[in-house]
Specification:
This protein is mostly helical and 61 residues long. It is built from one helix and no strands.
Length: 61
Amino acid sequence: MVDIKHLVENLDRYERELEIRFMEKGLAKKLASVYQHKNQLKIQVDAIRGQKISLTERFYS
């Protein structure tokens, strides 16, 4: 005879595992997006610093 309670517990556990995996994948995608945005901001900051240095050199030359 099949133990219904045992099957339900296993299904509940499996469902929770799937939810956790889905959340982990979503968080991983968000984290990758954040890192990509961070890298883009670093590039912009470096460009602005370069412009600032260039203007400072022109001013004091």
